[in-house]
Amino acid sequence: MPNDMSFQFLLFDGFSNMVLASALEPLRAARDMAQGQNICWHISTLDNGLVQSSSGIQIKPDGDITQAGVVDYLVVIAGYDVRGHVSPRGRAQLRQLASRAGVVAGLDTGAWLLASAGLLNGAQATIHWQEAAGFAETFPDVIPGKQRFVVAGKYITCGGASTVLEMMLHLLAEKFGPAMAFNVANLFVYDAERQYDSGRGANILKRRSDTPGFLAAIDVMMAHIEDPVSLATIAKRASLSLRSLDRLFQRELAMSPGKYYQMIRLARAHDMATQTGLSVAQIALQTGFASTATLSRAFRAQYGTQISKLRAHRKG
Questions:
Q1: CA–CA dist 75, 269 (Å, integer)
Q2: How large is the angle between the packed helices 161-176 and 178-187, nearest 10 degrees?
Q3: How do residues 63-120 score in pLDDT, each as one tens digit?
Q4: Containing structural domain, residue 255
Q5: What does the alpha-carbon distance between residue 149 and residue 144 come to, in Å, rounded to a whole number?
Q6: Which of the four pLDDT bands, split at 50, 70 and 90, describes residue 312?
Q7: Is 153 found in the same domain as 16?
Q8: Are 209 and 191 within one domain?
Q9: Is the same domain home to 116 and 82?
């Protein structure tokens, strides 16, 4: 049948339920609209075992991955601890699976696994914004993209749940026409124009603030985690006075801009502590803290624990 669409969803521990739902539910909705399309999907894992989401929900694969046949779309979904899923055997399996798919998509941090298998060399790709810097550094042969989702030949990458829904609407429109995508979008009360305009990262706050300077200030902070800049510099680049900068952050986030800036850097430190093998000294350097002692004090005040204990818990 010309309107067939077959999907193989390859899940890794730590995946986001929201990302999976944003990919699956539009397909279910399109299938249920009974306009002659035959849309099917199945869930797989590399080891054929249960897979657990970031919120602890377990999913059983539909069948043996070694028996998987040719599909239209292979969709790789990974979330937390993506580096822990990289292995020679896994890379080989990904390459084999990709060779049997017409289109290969990497969702959330799935692009990391595709890149580790050499599938994105020379192509443009995007990833969840929290991993963008590490992705660009680890895979210099991949061209970083900042779009909400990136299409590069047979590969598609996107970095978050709302962008996944947008990507799926794009695929449905390509296959079944814009009316189908419009109907599915309406079912989920999805405003594509507003989502597209909202961008990524700090821009998600647009509906909360009508002051461009507020968003510009956060963008400056996000761009300077490793090499922090002064509040005066942030205010200047956002075309604000220091007083206006402080007033905006108190109004929008109920905290000072300095406190929010530190929270961003500590969040990055937390991610590095739980997902990488970097030393505390290396983490301090990459998050702009003057010393390991300074980072440790701020980290404990923010999270109520020491980085060393967090890492010990991860290993256990």
A1: 30
A2: 140
A3: 899 888 899 999 999 998 899 999 999 999 999 999 999 999 999 999 999 999 999 9
A4: 204-315
A5: 11
A6: low
A7: yes
A8: no
A9: yes
- Summarised one tens digit per residue, pLDDT across range 14-64 is 999 999 999 999 999 888 775 556 899 999 999 999 999 999 999 999 989
Q: What percent of the chain has pLDDT over 70?
A: 89
Asked if residue 23 and residue 107 are part of one domain, the reply reads: yes
Q: What is the largest CA-CA distance in the chain?
A: 64
Check whether residue 36 and residue 157 sit in a common domain.
yes
Q: What is the pTM of this model?
A: 0.73
Are both 26 and 148 inside the same structural domain? yes
- Token readout for 190 is 């999805």
Query: Distances from the Cα of 258 to the Cαs of 202, 221, 235, 255, in angstroms?
Result: 16, 10, 11, 8
Q: Are residues 40 and 185 in the same domain?
A: yes
Dump pLDDT digits (tens) for 166-192: 999 999 988 888 878 877 887 775 555
Contact between residue 170 and residue 105 where contact means Cβ atoms under 8 Å apart? no
| Buried b / exposed e along 88-119 (16+ C-beta atoms within 10 A) | eebbebbeebbeebebbbbbbbbbbbbbbbeb
Residues 162 and 208 grouped into a single domain: no
Task: Examine the fold and report which residue of 147, 163, 198 is the final residue of a domain before the chain moves on.
Answer: 198
Instruction: Encode pLDDT of 198-256 as tens digits.
Output: 444 444 344 444 567 888 998 899 889 999 999 999 999 999 999 999 999 988 888 89
